[in-house]
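Fold it.
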Amino acid sequence: MRLQFAYYLLFTSFISCYRPNTYGQDQGAIIIKRYLFEPGITMNIDSKILYKNRLSIQEVVELNTREDSSGKSFFTKVLFYTYLDPDKNLCYNYKSFSDTAKFINYYTNMDSTIINGGWNFYSNQKNFYDSLIDLKDTVINRVEYKRIRVDNETKNKKIYSNIYFFRCDRVGLLVNFNKSLSDKIGCSVVRVDTWKENKLITTVEILFLSDQLSKDEIKVFKAWENNAKAKPVNK
């Protein structure tokens, strides 16, 4: 038996907008890793994001489950690829990652990427919180992180806490989990742990793959940019 679960809106509230590229790279590739923690189960969702200046291509993925005699297992599947142009406030969806692919649909509002499974990490949406607490710096895999805890209380008095991890050696990243806090601290948020009533329920983090795109990846960017110019969208 095969069941499908789409965790599309898992961390849209954490994604922030484009910032001046003070880190210095104008292209690269990252992985957004998401972990969902349920009693006795840990689910992992990975999606890749490529960027070239202000343009980006992101994988829109789906989490699936499979059950057989050996038990339950989880795997992800790429549904489509979204090409985003923030300067034109447009995004195009492609079924395959190829320089010969044709877009299957498009949206004239970047926020439409959220509805259709992606993340508008160019958004200027601000985050609100009830309290902000500085935590002790920590080191993970020889990388030093600053940390801040943000608490929010719901109407039914349940406490949600986000612990933000900042990398000060990676300032001005294209994808950043909280622009307002990054501006406040002066470092980029690359990981967020979400706690509900003292239980860790999700973790999202950025893993850096490369500060350069491959020749094939650059070829796809160029082709999709030309596609957008050849078939401009009327707003």
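DSSP finds three helices and twelve strands in the chain.
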